[in-house]
C-alpha cells in the first residue's frame, strides 16, 4: 500500500450545542469525519449544518461541547490554513482584483509558497480566468475561486459548506472528483449539502442532521440499505424525525 500524501486528521465533534434566542440551532451533536473518507453532512434547510461547521472552525462559540481537528481545537492549530481548507459563504472577493491577485494576497497571509497559486488555479480549472477581474465572474467561478483559496495551503482537511451550489453539471462532476481524489490521498473531507443526488457518488459516510439533531450517521451502504436510493433513504429518515416531534 502506498503511504497517504496527507497526515491522518480526523474531525471529531463532541456534544456541540448552540441556541439562538428561542431557536435550538444545534443540539448535542456528535460525529467523526474520518481521514481517507468523504463524509456528507446532510440535512434540510435550517437543520443546523452551517452552524455546526462554523463551530468546528471556531467562528461560532458553542454553548456546550467541543470539536477538534487532528486532536486539537481549530483555534489551537499551529498553521490552520495548512491543515484545514474551508469554504463557507462565497468569499467576499474584491471585484476590481483578478483571481490571481486575490490568491496571492491569501497565499501571503497564510505563509504559503507562491508557486502553489498556479497549482490551485489548475486544480480548480480557473487558470484561463486567472488574470480577469472577479467582478465578471459567475457564481460557479466564485465557487471555484473559494475552493482555490481553500487549497492554497495543501490542507489535509477540507470543510466545504454547500460547495456545489451554483456549479453547472460539469462543475459538479469536477467537484465530486476533487473530493474523491482528496480522500484517496489520505485527506479528510466534510461536505455539507441538501443536494443529495449531486454528491451521492462521492460520499463514503453520511451524517444526517434534522432540526439541530443528528438523526443518522454511518456508511453510505448502511444508510441506503432497504431503500431504492439515497434520496428516498434521506427523505424517509428526516420525515420520520419530523413526524416524531
Ligand atoms: N446568527 C444567527 N442568529 C439567529 N439564528 C440563527 C443564526 N444562525 C443560524 N440561525 C438559525 O439556526 C438554525 C440553523 O441554521 P443553519 O444555518 O445552521 O442551518 P443549515 O442546515 O446550514 O441550513 P441551510 O441548508 O438552509 O443553509 C436556523 O433556524 C437558523 O435560522
Automatic annotation (TrEMBL):
Residue ranges annotated for the ABC transporter domain, each copy included: 11-236
UniProt xrefs under InterPro entries: AAA+_ATPase, ABC_transporter-like_ATP-bd, P-loop_NTPase
PROSITE patterns in UniProt: ABC_TRANSPORTER_2
Record flagged with keyword DNA-binding: no
Domain of life, source organism: Bacteria
MF annotations from Gene Ontology: ATP binding; ATP hydrolysis activity
Keywords, sorted A to Z: ATP-binding, Nucleotide-binding, Transport
Classification via SUPFAM superfamilies: P-loop containing nucleoside triphosphate hydrolases (SSF52540)
Family: Belongs to the ABC transporter superfamily.
The name this protein goes by in its record: ABC-2 type transport system ATP-binding protein
Organism (species): Microlunatus soli
Amino acid at each position: 500500500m502506498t503511504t497517504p500524501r496527507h497526515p491522518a486528521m480526523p474531525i471529531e465533534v463532541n456534544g456541540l450545542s448552540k441556541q439562538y434566542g428561542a431557536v435550538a440551532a444545534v443540539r448535542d451533536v456528535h460525529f467523526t469525519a474520518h481521514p481517507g473518507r468523504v463524509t456528507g453532512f446532510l440535512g434540510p434547510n435550517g437543520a443546523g449544518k452551517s452552524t455546526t461547521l462554523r463551530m468546528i472552525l471556531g467562528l461560532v462559540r458553542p454553548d456546550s461541547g467541543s470539536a477538534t481537528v487532528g486532536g486539537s481545537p481549530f483555534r489551537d492549530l499551529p498553521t490552520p490554513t495548512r491543515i484545514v481548507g474551508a469554504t463557507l459563504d462565497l468569499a467576499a472577493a474584491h471585484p476590481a482584483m483578478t483571481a490571481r491577485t486575490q490568491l496571492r494576497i491569501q497565499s501571503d497571509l497564510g505563509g504559503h509558497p507562491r508557486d502553489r497559486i498556479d497549482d490551485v488555479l489548475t486544480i480548480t480549472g480557473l487558470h484561463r480566468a486567472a488574470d480577469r477581474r472577479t467582478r465578471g465572474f459567475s457564481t460557479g467561478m466564485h465557487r471555484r475561486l473559494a475552493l482555490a483559496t481553500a487549497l492554497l495551503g495543501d490542507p489535509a482537511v477540507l470543510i466545504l459548506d454547500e460547495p456545489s451550489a451554483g456549479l453547472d453539471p460539469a462543475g459538479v462532476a469536477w467537484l465530486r472528483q476533487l473530493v474523491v481524489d482528496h480522500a484517496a490521498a489520505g485527506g479528510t473531507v466534510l461536505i455539507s449539502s441538501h443536494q443529495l443526488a449531486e454528491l451521492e457518488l462521492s460520499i463514503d459516510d453520511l451524517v444526517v442532521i434534522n432540526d439541530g439533531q443528528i438523526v443518522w450517521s454511518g456508511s453510505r451502504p448502511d444508510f441506503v440499505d432497504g431503500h431504492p436510493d439515497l434520496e428516498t433513504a434521506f427523505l424517509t429518515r428526516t420525515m420520520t424525525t419530523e413526524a416524531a416531534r
